[in-house]
């Protein structure tokens, strides 16, 4: 039996195909560049978005992870042995240079100082008497009232007693010095830890009483890579200032400004890094030794090419982009990337100023195949903008 609707059955697929082609043509015709002008469509070419590479003068920055370190760290130990009789600070408080932190029983040292002083006084008196007798002997030997031998004996006696007096004076000074060591003082201004030894304990010179760190300034130690070393070592070793900024874990950005103070003389061949250290003022005392710090080093200003991270593809260990070449064909271009600046990625090598790269639709692109381009501004990717 023949179909009652032979014409409609055959015409429907053709009408649908023609309608789909018309819609696709209308969609391609609706693509426009940044100026609002429609980009020419190539038959069978996949639609993509493309942007012109941004050329900008920037001050490139590098960021590192580091730890804060105290400039002065002192382990407080007693210089004499004895019993602790006083602890004169609160744990964690700030102390000044010369403040008395601990006191050791001074009575035995006071007695020894008094004894040594008395011995010195007696020796000095004998030496003074010997000197007077030597002066008389000089006049007598000149008048030949005594023999030369007797004079020589008196001169030798004076020298011996004078040496004994000087030895006694040294012992007296040592005893007074030990007496002063019964007051354990702070050698620097800084923040003190807790007392490791409490009142009534016997201590000696090997005992650590507490520790002390300076606070006025602080170090930030971090590891730089080989390129950082090659860029900064000559300036740092030559005494030229290198500005360094730092931020703590609870801070936004890098509010603390300091300068590079130290670059090590060799790289660690195992890690390919070199130890560096910057110094910062710490007037507000908000930077403490041991805290994590983000460290930023700003480089010199220069012209750089910038692209969005959305335009970058990965081919095994290589990074690449697609450049829109002549006749709208996509060109594979391997690139060397740098850091992120203002949400865009620095391109070291692989691109030229004024070139247009594909930023959306990479999955539809093949090298050497024409594409239908819609020009859009070069914008940072959402992930990069959030990170920044």
UniProtKB/TrEMBL annotation:
It is found in: Cell envelope. Pfam families: Beta-barrel_RND (PF25944), BSH_RND (PF25917), HH_MFP_RND (PF25876), RND-MFP_C (PF25967). The keyword Acetylation does not apply. It comes from the Bacteria. Residues 1-29 form the signal peptide. Residues 306-364 form the Multidrug resistance protein MdtA-like C-terminal permuted SH3 domain. PROSITE patterns: PROKAR_LIPOPROTEIN. Belongs to the membrane fusion protein (MFP) (TC 8.A.1) family. This is Efflux RND transporter periplasmic adaptor subunit. Keywords: Signal. It comes from Massilia solisilvae.
């Amino acid at each position: 039996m023949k179909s009652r609707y032979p014409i409609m059955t055959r015409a429907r697929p053709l009408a649908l195909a023609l309608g789909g082609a018309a819609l696709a043509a209308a969609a391609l015709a609706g693509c426009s560049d940044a100026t609002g002008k429609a980009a020419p469509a190539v038959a069978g070419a996949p639609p993509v978005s493309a942007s012109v590479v941004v050329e900008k003068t920037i001050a490139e920055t590098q960021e590192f992870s580091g730890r804060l370190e105290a400039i002065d760290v002192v382990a407080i130990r007693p210089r004499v042995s004895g019993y602790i009789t006083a602890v004169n600070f609160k744990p964690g408080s700030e102390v000044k240079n010369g403040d008395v932190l601990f006191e050791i029983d001074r009575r035995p040292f006071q007695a020894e100082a008094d004894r040594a002083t008395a011995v010195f006084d007696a020796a000095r008196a004998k030496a003074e008497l010997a000197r007077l007798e030597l002066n008389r002997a000089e006049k007598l030997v000149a008048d030949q009232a005594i023999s030369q031998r007797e004079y020589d004996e008196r001169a030798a006696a004076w020298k011996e007693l004078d040496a004994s007096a000087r030895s006694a004076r040294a012992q007296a000074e040592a005893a007074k010095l030990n007496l002063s060591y019964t007051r354990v003082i702070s050698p620097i201004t800084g923040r003190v830890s807790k007392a490791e030894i409490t009142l009534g304990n016997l201590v000696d010179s090997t005992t650590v009483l507490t520790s002390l760190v300076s606070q006025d300034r602080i170090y930030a130690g971090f590891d730089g890579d080989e390129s950082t070393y090659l860029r900064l070592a000559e300036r740092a070793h030559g005494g030229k200032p290198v500005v360094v900024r730092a931020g703590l874990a609870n801070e936004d950005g890098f509010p603390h400004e300091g300068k590079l103070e130290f670059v090590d003389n060799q790289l660690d061949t195992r890690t390919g890094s070199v130890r560096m250290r910057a110094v910062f003022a710490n007037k507000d005392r908000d930077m403490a030794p041991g805290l994590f710090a983000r460290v930023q080093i700003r480089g010199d200003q220069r012209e750089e090419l910038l692209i969005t991270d959305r335009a970058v593809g990965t081919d095994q260990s290589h990074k690449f982009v697609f450049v829109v070449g002549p006749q709208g064909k996509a060109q594979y271009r391997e690139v060397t990337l740098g850091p992120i600046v203002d949400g865009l990625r620095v391109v070291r090598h692989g691109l030229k100023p004024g070139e247009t790269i594909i930023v959306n639709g990479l999955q539809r692109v093949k090298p050497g195949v024409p594409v239908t381009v819609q020009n859009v501004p070069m914008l940072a990717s959402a992930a990069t903008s959030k990170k920044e």
